[in-house]
Design brief:
The complex is a heterodimer of chains A (about 375) and B (about 240). Helices cover about 35% and strands about 20% of the residues of chain A. Chain A is built from 15 helices and 16 strands. Chain A has a 6-stranded mixed beta sheet, with helices on both faces. Chain A is globular, with a radius of gyration of 25 Å. By secondary structure, chain B is mostly helical. Chain B has one domain: MetI-like fold (Orthogonal Bundle). Chain B contains 10 helices and no strands. In chain B, helix 1 crosses helix 4, helix 6 runs antiparallel to helix 8 and helix 7 runs antiparallel to helix 8. Classes of the chains: A alpha/beta (about 375), B mainly alpha (about 240). Chains A and B meet through helix 2, strand 6 and helix 4 of A and helix 5 and helix 6 of B. Chain B: It holds the Pfam family BPD_transp_1. Chain B: Keywords: Membrane, Transmembrane, Transmembrane helix, Transport. Chain B: It is a multi-pass membrane protein. Chain B: Belongs to the binding-protein-dependent transport system permease family.
């Protein structure tokens, strides 16, 4: 655990970058510092590896004051990832990653073997090992940056706007990758960003900071969205707070209808049987059970289904894995107002109406407590 | 004497190739010494920003001192020796090296330095493992200018008695009215400069495999641009003649 204890950073010219900050960063979780520029988030991060020394207060790592520890030893025990990766342009990828192990006195062979292992872990092709940074794309360089930070298996990982300089698609990939790696490795990650969506997506806890180095709120993202501490936080969270909060509610308890579903090769009998009841539409699937589109029962003729003439089914959501936000998005996208639930392999497991989703949302709000992180994080950005 | 084109007058007490070797030694030792002196000076200038302008100013002033004036002062201490020629050459090289190294080291991106610091590289490791290697192309560019200019400047050493390498031959050629000797001296000096420059280009290619290819592609024959480079030499010769 990292404990920031009444820390102030004041520069000689009187500027206060961080003002009496106290908070606890729990182990094996991602703590995100977010805020506008000049809020002291990067300063805070840099005080943790002593690239900046606090003017007042102290920071403790597992109860030990950082100021009492040899600075380079301390830094080698904390991985550090920055914007634009900051790779050593004169070293190959594998040697970039092997930097800290080499500093710790590992043999060249052992350090390089470890580096190759990490390339694999962060999703880099081993063929890139002997390349130089200029030969890699921005996203690949950033992966190298993450691998380099993880090389000596440090318990703490400091990340300073690591994904800000890459395009949104690559950024989403890197975020997902980070969450996956975190699930495997369980590091204590301190992550700085100015992007509140990123903070909400990857943070276990989010510290919202405001200009002048004040902590505005420190809470898990779901709580931040449902219960912002003040106008500043609410404003910073931006629009669609309610919708975004749905990312933290699971679809596992959503009641699915399985009746209004017919395969494309169904007989007339099966069609009429399935359209019994007051369901206005039938979902047509292919022979494997993957969705094709909606149709009114009356327009369906056995053996002569034209997939071109079916109504679009929007974006299906993965039942139990994706959030209510994804389900609602799917229902809103389809002209029928029904969302399609699928299993991991894309086969339809059921359909659900906007009404049912609305009831689930109300029920979830009534419980008040979102069901934790695992459901929300995978798709927090899907609909946004 | 058997009339070979490389035969030279006996008063030089040397062969042509001996003069070539002497010329290289007189030219290159000051460059290496200049580089070794410039490295710490430049690092100080990088660390203490305010120091850079005055240092640059001093090196420029030193460069403006005619070599003859240097010789006059130095002969009292070092006599008519090679050292008397080498000291001014070494001092002149600083005007090239200091800005080249300072700019090279400053060109290292801040995030690269931050990353190095954050990974626990102390100041020495940062300098030798990160800043210096990344500044290498700029330093080698400076080395090329310094080397070529030093090779052409050595000739003035003839003024203090046969300490000018191939320059002595130029002197003899003028005294004995033998154009062949003049050509041997001038062409020999130019060829040395071109070869030294080409060698340094090769070195740069070998030590910087990490540079994007577009920037490091050598020109087919990497000429030391005769129009611009011999200028210091011409100026120095003028000084010398004065």
């Amino acid at each position: 655990m990292i404990r920031i204890d009444s820390v102030t950073k004041r520069y000689p010219d009187g500027t206060v970058a961080v003002d009496n900050l106290s908070l606890e960063i729990p182990d094996r979780s991602i703590t995100v510092f977010v805020g506008p520029s000049g809020c002291g988030k990067t300063t805070t991060l840099r005080m943790i590896n002593r690239m900046i020394e606090p003017t007042e207060g102290r920071i403790l790592l597992d109860g030990k004051d950082l100021a009492q520890q040899p600075v380079n030893t301390l830094r080698r025990s904390m991985g550090y990832v920055i914007q634009n990766a900051g790779l050593f342009q004169h070293r190959t990828i594998v040697d970039n990653i092997a930097t800290v192990p080499r500093l710790l006195g590992w043999s060249k062979d052992k350090a390089r073997a470890r580096a190759r292992e990490l390339m694999d872990r962060v999703g880099l092709d081993g063929a890139l090992a002997k390349r130089y940074p200029y030969q890699l794309s921005g996203g690949q360089q950033q992966r190298v940056g993450v691998a380099r930070a993880l090389a000596a298996d440090p318990p703490v990982l400091l990340m300073d706007e690591p994904f800000s300089a890459v395009d949104p698609v690559v950024r989403k990939g890197l975020q997902d990758e980070l969450l996956r790696i975190q699930e495997e490795l369980g590091k204590t990650i301190v992550f700085v960003t100015h992007d509140i969506d990123e903070a909400v997506k990857i943070g276990t806890n989010v510290a919202v900071m405001r200009t002048g180095g004040h902590l505005a709120q420190f809470a898990p993202p779901a709580e931040l969205l449902s219960n912002p501490a003040d106008d500043f936080v609410e404003d910073f969270l931006g629009a669609d707070r309610g919708i975004r909060r749905l990312s933290f509610f699971s679809t596992a308890d959503l009641g699915l209808l399985t009746t209004p579903i017919v395969a494309v090769d169904s007989t007339a009998e099966q069609i009429s049987e399935r359209s019994a009841g007051d369901v206005p539409y039938l979902l047509v699937t292919d022979v494997e059970g993957k969705p094709l589109g909606w149709s009114e029962p009356a327009r369906l003729t056995a053996g002569a289904v034209d997939p071109e003439r079916l109504l679009p089914y929007g974006r299906p959501f993965e039942h139990g894995k994706e959030s209510l936000r994804a389900a609602l998005d799917g229902a809103v996208l389809s002209p029928t107002g029904w969302a399609v639930a699928v299993s991991a392999d894309g086969r339809v497991t059921g359909v659900v109406s906007q009404q049912t989703i609305g009831e689930a949302i109300r029920a979830a709000h009534a419980e008040g407590d979102p069901d934790g992180r695992t459901d929300g994080r995978t798709d927090a950005k899907v609909a946004g | 004497m058997n009339g070979g084109i490389f035969d030279i007058p006996s008063d030089l007490q040397n062969t042509y190739w001996g003069l070539v070797g002497l010329h290289l030694r007189l030219a290159l030792i000051p460059v290496v010494a200049g580089l070794l002196v410039a490295l710490p000076i430049s690092q100080l200038c990088v660390m203490l920003r305010w120091l850079y302008p005055p240092v640059l100013w001093v090196t420029t002033i030193l460069y403006a001192i005619p070599s003859l004036a240097f010789f006059v002062v130095l002969i009292d201490y070092t006599g008519q020796t090679e050292l008397t020629v080498m000291i001014p050459l070494g001092v002149y090289s600083l005007v090239v090296f200091v800005p080249a190294i300072v700019d090279g080291v400053r060109s290292v991106p801040q995030e690269t330095l931050d990353a190095a610091t954050a990974m626990g590289l102390g100041p020495w490791r940062r300098y030798f493992q990160v800043q210096l290697p990344i500044a290498a192309p700029a330093i080698i560019a400076g080395l090329r200018v310094a080397t070529v200019s030093s090779i052409s400047l050595v000739s003035v050493g003839m003024l203090i008695g046969n300490q000018g390498g191939l320059g002595n031959l130029l002197n003899d050629g003028m005294i004995y009215h033998q154009p062949r000797l003049v050509w041997l001296s001038v062409i020999g000096t130019a060829v040395l400069a071109i070869l030294a420059d080409a060698f340094l280009v090769l070195v740069r290619i070998l030590v910087t495999p990490w540079m994007p290819r577009g920037n490091r592609k050598p020109r087919p024959v990497d000429e030391p641009e005769p129009e611009s480079r011999p200028e210091p030499a011409a100026a120095a010769l003028e000084d010398a003649v004065r």
